[in-house]
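Researcher: For the annotation table, I need structure tokens for C2H2-type domain-containing protein. Please keep the output clean. Sequence:
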Amino acid sequence: MPYDYFFPTVKLRLSSRTCKTCGLYHASAKSLNRHIENVHKKVNTHTDRKVRPVRVVARRANELMCIIQNLDHHDVEWLDENDVDIPKSEH
């Protein structure tokens, strides 16, 4: 059983980070998407949409640490630059 199952703040994200094909849990959406592409050889339709963050907190290489609004709380995650929708004025 994944460690994250015991944290109430993570419960809302468990289903979105679990592979629908094999049931394997991943700690991040990025890891889940990589798993689906490499193991199941198909593109996850969830990644076709770009994420519009509340705020970009940090940058490294080709990744951005973004604050994302999820229902009634905020979530912080590293995302590929190509997966983030940032208005041109914020670049």
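Researcher: And a one-line annotation?
Model: The chain has two domains: 3-46, 49-90.
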